[in-house]
Amino acid sequence: MSDTDTTERDMAEAGEQLSTAPREDLTTGGGPTLGVIGWIRWFWRQLTSMRVALILLFLLSLGAIPGSLIPQNSVDDLKVRTFKEQHEVLAPIYDRLQLFDVYSSVWFSAIYILLFVSLIGCIVPRSRQFAGQLRGRPPAAPMRLTRLPAYTTWRTEAAPEEVREAALAMLRKRRFRAHAVDDAVAAEKGYLREVGNLVFHIALIVMLVAFAMGQLFKSEGGKLIIEGGGFANTLTQYDDFSSGSLFSTDELAPFSFTLNRFTGTYETGGPQRGTPRTFEADVTYSQGGGVRKRSVIRVNEPLEIGGSKVYLISHGYAPVVTVKDGKGVTVFRGAVPLLPIDNNITSTGVIKVMDGYRDKSGKKVQLGFPAFFVPTYAGKGQGQMFSQFPGLAFPALNLSAYQGDLRVDGGLPQNVYQLDTSKMKPFKDASGQIFKKTLIPGETMTLPQGAGSITFEKEIKEWASFKIAQQPGNGLALAGAIAAIAGLAGSLFIQRRRVWVRAVRGDASTGGLTVVEMAGLGRSESAKLPEELAELAATLHSVAPTAPEADEADERAEQ
Amino acid sequence: MNLAAATNESLAEMSNVLVYSAMAVYTLAFLAHIAEWVLGSRSKVGRTAAALTTPAAPKVRVRTAGQGGGTAVLDKPKVVTRSASGSRDVPDGPGAAGGDQKGDLYGRIAVSLTTLAFLVEAAAVVARALSVQRAPWGNMYEFSLTFSTVAVGAYLAFLVAGKNVRWMGLLLVTTVLLDLGVATTWLYTDSDQLVPALHSYWLWIHVSTAIFCGAVFYLGAVATLLYLFRDAYENKLASGGTPSGFARSVLERLPAAATLDKFAYRVNAAVFPLWTFTIIAGAIWAGDAWGRYWGWDAKEVWSFITWVAYAAYLHARATAGWKGRKAAYVALIAFACWLFNYYGVNIFVNSLHSYAGV
Ligand code: HEM
After folding, report:
1. What is the DSSP letter of B133?
2. Where is the composition biased (Basic and acidic residues) (chain A) (predicted)?
């Protein structure tokens, strides 16, 4: 029994400090007994232990789940609103638990902050310990090398000192850190594994810092631009805008651009008819009032101006219409962007005439034309008003008309693509139905009772919507990511291992020959370890070959 | 209809025929594996039980050098390996054929058929790629097809490299058939071009590594699962219990628990850096395509969860009290996360990722 005990201890010493993993103390069950400081120490030790790191990693992945199943404000706030309307009971509970903002919630932040405190608390002592290991030397050979994962032995006529010297030279030549202790040579290699591991964990911190920077200082906003229209990078020009809490508007890079042309091409035949081929936004931009340059923005190919990136997000059509009043005076003329609702760009929206229009009695009223636009019309009486193809092959515009109060002046935020009909009355046709007409370019719809007309002009513009984003820390995040992968590869693919070579003068039973024993121990079990040991043994064997007499003796003994 | 479209269609047609052919050959391989296991069950080897009931320290012998006439040519000294302290020293099982010659023959036939099926399936992937003139990873059907091809390819690569992995043949072929069945019946999508959002060389980089990681993680998961069974079996034997007939017949022929565990760890650890890279490549692509490199989109979230789960697995293996079975459970959870990221997110969750509509 005591024999196995000493062997175990022997083995433990041989494997000592083969990594910088924190020591696991399974036996300490209860808390400390040393008052406040003791408790703080205890808590710190717990926090920086592998077990707690493991639990925190678990919690982090568990905590990330709800955010993927429940709509998130940061991803799609429209969906969140719909969800809230549909779930009157659940929504307030979710709200309280911050389940609509999981990734910025207090509890999710708490998990990853704890994890990163734990990480720092882990890295610092591990680096110190590793520095110590670099200064120290591999431990002496354990008593019974046969217990190690890889082992070999033979007898040779060479003297023990000779063998040890040869072993030391061989191991050093192969970049092992080797030294002779007592009757054996102890060697170690693969310290880069630890370096890789530390680099990886430090890189995680670097990445976190980069993300935090990005979140705090970022800004992003959207802008829809009709061909010929432009944008200057100031807050008021954005359709929507959001920014990190430390962002200030004077950090907006000064630039402007104009959308000259948007081109979308689509497969025109075959089974893939209608599939988008190219989307290109031809723009002219200038930075800080400097020279104007031309560029093309594509999906996946944003335009970078002064640290900001301009992404092409979506596109659609903006039919040009002219609205005249009963007297034939033009009260509105312009391109009205409509929103696509399917892949063939069937689009809807509203043409709103805010002012300038007076009805027959001379009263100021507003007009609203709910519009349905298809770039490729199936033809009259061909089912519903759905587009057959995303390109402009046979455009048609279906309109109805309302008059009254658009309610845009009330100060309430209003969706420009929807008509609030609460204060409006539709024009009716002779049979009392809502007045409706489908126009092709150049056609005019005359409103009943001489109320005016609306013309669908031959010119149809396209619009493109852009996202303008500015986020510092990207370079740092990328550097961290590359370091993380490199460190990880080092940490997982490099073996840290020890090799011992013992050479002693044998007793009478060996015929006074030298007994050479070699053994290897790795941080984790590896198939390469025995291979490497075999190779080392072969090299050493060529210096100290097996004694032939021993062979015969061995064979005789075996018979 | 233009000519190019017609050739494309016939290529797509050919790809479909090849997929069905591959399924037929996989079915034959499946049957051959079954024959291997059935025939192998006749030979009762009982090595595990013997090893566990008579624990003997491995005998270390001095390697005798080979003699060759006058000038002695000396062999290399032989290295004896033994498991690290703390783990059982159980030899690996004899494999599915259990030493039975006929069983072994069927096993070899199964491997040959699997190789043939792999080549046919790979051809199907190539034909599909040619028909759509892009990387064949635009939708779940294509993804599933490539996924099983790569999994089988990795398995065959292990065999070629001389690794002992034939024990997973039956399970692998079965799941490949399931995967292809699901792909052809529910996920089938006509060959189609990509929308501009997917027009990026990052598609090649990001999606190919994602598929590769999934396929190899899958092999790791199979080994982990079998490890759990085999470990329970060894535990039972070691504590003097009698395992069920199934365990004695099937589990007995598997490699030792320690071997399975090691294999699973190596596979998972080797792929983890690549998985990390996959996520980072995805983030870079998202940065170009959507204007933010990380937006907590469902697919991103689940990639992250999978990543953290595998990191937890690697940590568990280095944590006292979590090695062995508990770490194995973590590994299985991690793979379940990967699967959910693939099937679950695409089917149940709305995500920006374009094949979300299946
Ligand atoms: C941000 C979360 C973390 C992640 C994603 C992470 C990831 C990893 C990975 C992938 C490995 C595998 C390398 C290997 O097996 O050699 C590893 C190893 C390691 N980690 Fe972490 N880690 C994290 C936090 C921590 C923390 C908080 C600690 C300290 C308590 C820690 C301590 C260690 C140690 C000691 C190893 C080496 C284990 C060994 O030598 O086998 N890690 N980590």
Report:
1. T
2. 1-12
